[in-house]
Amino acid sequence: MTAKKDMDGVVAALEADLERSYASLGTLVPDVLAKVSPHVNGEGTIISWPAHIRGMQRIVRRPDGNVLFVTQGLSFPFSLFPGMADTPALGYELAIEVPGDERFGESTYSAATDADLSQAWPVEALWFLSHCYLEDRWPLLERLEAFGGLITGFLPPIPDIEHHANADGLVGILLGIPLSPEEPIAYESQRVVARHGDHVSRVVVVTLMTNSEYTHVTGVLDSSRAKALAEHLRRIGMGHVSATMRGSLV
Fold first, then answer.
1. Quick check: 193 and 201 in contact, CB under 8 A?
2. For the residues 8-13, what does the mean pLDDT come to?
């Protein structure tokens, strides 16, 4: 019981720290986006979040009008069920930022209501990635460290981004471009958003790629093309931001 109380205290401290960090990035929307029941994979296995039965996301309206969607609690210690406390924490949250002036529904992302934003494509994308990474206990931070701060991944053909899908129906993504354009592209630049004792939570940004960019970047075994694309995105002022209708850079 004492161990459970201790773990509850750690989770509560991390949640408070995470809330402060997200609020420092802009205007944190009070409502929490949540999936009430745990995810069940194709084999019927329950994939629960580390410290809560429900997965959670938050929305941050950035000062420049952009909108940031970010998970909440994915990085926490596993404490939900007996025996899970010995499972290493993932240590990362996932985020997607979209341009405020990009068309969304009948208006733009910056002008959309909080309720409308809860239906935007980044929400479904983050649920998908979170469930996959939780099921696989994906060591994303270790991969970023091994590959110089950038790795590739994919999403299913979610509405609003399905036009970027390749012949296999996959939409390419780049993970690891730092939130701050002043930070170098490196593992160490993944922003720390919560800390308590030995536990550190970082946020890793997911950036959409076009079909041709995904094909180009994954055409080599190292991260050289990924880094070149990330630097190009920075030069044109996009950086980590995911614009669904931008032209391909390769």
1. yes
2. 86
Please give the residue range of the domain that contains residue 214.
2-235
Residue type, 98: V
Query: What is the structure's pLDDT at 21?
Result: 98
**Domain presence at residue 64:** yes
Whole-number pLDDT of residue 10: 86
Is residue 220 included in any domain, yes or no? yes
- Evaluate whether residue 249 is within a structural domain: no
For 52-68, how does the pLDDT look when each residue is reduced to its tens digit (9 = 90+)?
Answer: 777 899 999 999 999 99
CA-wise closest residue to 190 among 143, 144, 130: 144
Average pLDDT, the chain: 90
The verdict on residue 242 lying in a domain is: no
Domain count across the chain:
1
Q: With 80 as the cut, is the pLDDT of residue 79 above it?
A: no
